[in-house]
Amino acid sequence: MLKAGFIGAGGRGQSAHYPTIHRLADQVEMAAVCELDEERLGQVVEKYGFEKTYADHRVLLDEIDPDIVYCVMNEKWLLQPVLDCINAGKHLFIEKPPGANSDETRAILEAAEKNKVWVQVGLQRRYTAVNREAMRVVNAKGPVSLATTTFNKQLPQRADEFTTTLWNDLVHIVDLLRYMAGGEPTEVTSYQDKFGGDGFDHYTALVRFDNDATGVMMGNRASGGRVIGSELHGVGIGCYMKIPAEITILEDNQSRTLGGWEIDGVDEDDVPRYEGLLHMHEDFIDGVNNNKQPIADIRDVIHSIDLVDKIEAAEIMEKK
Hints:
Layout (H helix, E strand, L loop, with lengths): L1 E6 L3 H12 L5 E7 L3 H11 L3 E3 L2 H8 L3 E4 L7 H9 L3 E4 L7 H14 L3 E3 L7 H13 L4 E9 L10 H4 L2 H11 L3 E9 L8 E8 L4 E7 L1 E13 L2 E6 L3 E6 L2 E6 H5 L6 H4 L2 H14 L7 H22 L1
Parallel strand pairs: 1-2, 1-4, 2-3, 4-5, 5-6, 7-10
Antiparallel strand pairs: 7-11, 8-9, 9-10, 11-12, 12-13, 13-14
Helix pairs in contact: 4-5, 5-12, 8-12
């Protein structure tokens, strides 16, 4: 049984991570929580029965001495609590993006390597059932030829946002693109545009990988509503994913469609399982218990952050 401390009880934590970890009560003890907002603190205490509460994460680390820490907060405030946890020798889960910029991500990586701890990043699309199935069937037939990722919504960039849409939102599909393609980028062409927002809210990137796969990333927060999808193609096979609900597989001119819940063998309403949340947290726990690098550990995620940097740099060059 791993003893867990929690830093932050905001919307994302309460809607996704707290209830998911609560499902793993046979593996994780939810021992203590640190939160400055008294209302949010009261909500998680009432729901999950925390007996130990703190306003200072450093006191939590000293008094509770947890095995793992879930530090789920906005990237604006993330770095110092993360470094404090890592330097205390604690394995850590953080949400995406991993820091306020790529320099902070590299600082987190350096600390994780120095202290020999795992830092799992909440890039759950790697764990989504339909994406896992696509990678399984395509890789079984031969090399990947093309990967695409799409993330559209109606949420224009605001002037008061701390980071860019690419960094704090579309990093999900940049990471998924690299992960599915299975290589490292060698060429990047990209564009950014403003359509109704205060900043760039429309991104498109074409990526060539060192394994000869091509990747296309399309992210548009100036669209009409939320759609997230992906494609993965190989030799004689193409997969079309509506994330997280459905995959259509075309193989040798034959078509079959599966629900994400069918792939994982669960009820259709068990969305946290087949959308990847539960798999992601189980992978983190397994990594800690068996000293095995989790799939979305910072050591691998840094390569996706490097791709984000390349897309940003290419955009800047296009605009000059």
